[in-house]
Amino acid sequence: MAPVVSDKTSATGVLRAYASVPATGRVEANNGKFSHVMRDQESLDGTAGYQPSMAESESLPGKSVLLVASSSPARTHFRELIATGGYRVAAVSSANEALRLLRIEAFALAVVHEVDDKTPSRLSREMKALTDEDLRPPLPVVLLASTFDPDYAVRCLRAGSDDYITGPHLEPRVLLARLEAVLRSYRRQRTEQEREKKQPARIGAIMIDPERFRVEVNGSAVEVTRIQFTLLYAMASQPDRTFTRPQLRGIIAELGGNLDDGSIKSHIHHLRRRLGVAGRQIETVRGLGYRLVT
């Protein structure tokens, strides 16, 4: 039987949300305020049948890189260099700006050059901890340095950095190849994890089948949007656990969306209505978020 979903929930609909994002865009940070492309939440649901071009596909989350470098010349150099690999690069000048941006945007990779307000190893730890806290897939972090310091390289790698590239290895072709190698390793891990996760979940009267993208209540199919399905399956993966609103925003960020708390509340409201009586299984935890109870 074919999956029962809304026409608006096709994967191509998610791609459509990125159609207007340039492949080599830049984020400028100014007093903590970021000027960047904000996708309209309605466009996330998209329109069935849309086929993105190669240029549009390059702006998907899998091609988004967060670059952190305090030096303006270095920031410009590495932003332009990385962009030649087809990546959409968001460039910021400080560790604190990077962490603020990471809270509202999803990136496939972070590249850190020398920064003034934190050591690169500490920034690497904090970025990874932030994505873990928001229940996002692990964020690979690559450190760049002009000179090689073996002791510092060991400390950085032990602190969780995925690569430490210096000196002659900053040659453009080698650097891009090293970045792609790190991403390839993470994609392989995620593919294996997704295979393990794609098992139907049954919580009370609700059944969620991620393989067929299908939701049932007491055996009857329920039509849901892609965002609603993602929220429901995330909560079903850990029933009775409270998911905070920032955590749910992080999960939706993987679809390319940047939803605020009001948008999350609206999606939960409509999801409850579609589930009927079973919608009562989604409980509001005042001041925190939501949970799916058994």
Automatic annotation (TrEMBL):
<dbReference type="InterPro" id="IPR001867">
    <property type="entry name" value="OmpR/PhoB-type_DNA-bd"/>
</dbReference>
<feature type="domain" description="Response regulatory">
    <location>
        <begin position="64"/>
        <end position="182"/>
    </location>
</feature>
<feature type="domain" description="OmpR/PhoB-type">
    <location>
        <begin position="198"/>
        <end position="294"/>
    </location>
</feature>
<dbReference type="InterPro" id="IPR036388">
    <property type="entry name" value="WH-like_DNA-bd_sf"/>
</dbReference>
<feature type="DNA-binding region" description="OmpR/PhoB-type">
    <location>
        <begin position="198"/>
        <end position="294"/>
    </location>
</feature>
<protein>
    <submittedName>
        <fullName>Uncharacterized protein</fullName>
    </submittedName>
</protein>
<keyword id="KW-0597">Phosphoprotein</keyword>
<dbReference type="GO" id="GO:0032993">
    <property type="term" value="C:protein-DNA complex"/>
</dbReference>
<keyword id="KW-0238">DNA-binding</keyword>
<dbReference type="Pfam" id="PF00486">
    <property type="entry name" value="Trans_reg_C"/>
</dbReference>
<dbReference type="InterPro" id="IPR011006">
    <property type="entry name" value="CheY-like_superfamily"/>
</dbReference>
<dbReference type="InterPro" id="IPR001789">
    <property type="entry name" value="Sig_transdc_resp-reg_receiver"/>
</dbReference>
<dbReference type="InterPro" id="IPR039420">
    <property type="entry name" value="WalR-like"/>
</dbReference>
<dbReference type="GO" id="GO:0006355">
    <property type="term" value="P:regulation of DNA-templated transcription"/>
</dbReference>
<dbReference type="GO" id="GO:0005829">
    <property type="term" value="C:cytosol"/>
</dbReference>
<dbReference type="GO" id="GO:0000976">
    <property type="term" value="F:transcription cis-regulatory region binding"/>
</dbReference>
<keyword id="KW-0902">Two-component regulatory system</keyword>
<dbReference type="GO" id="GO:0000156">
    <property type="term" value="F:phosphorelay response regulator activity"/>
</dbReference>
<dbReference type="InterPro" id="IPR016032">
    <property type="entry name" value="Sig_transdc_resp-reg_C-effctor"/>
</dbReference>
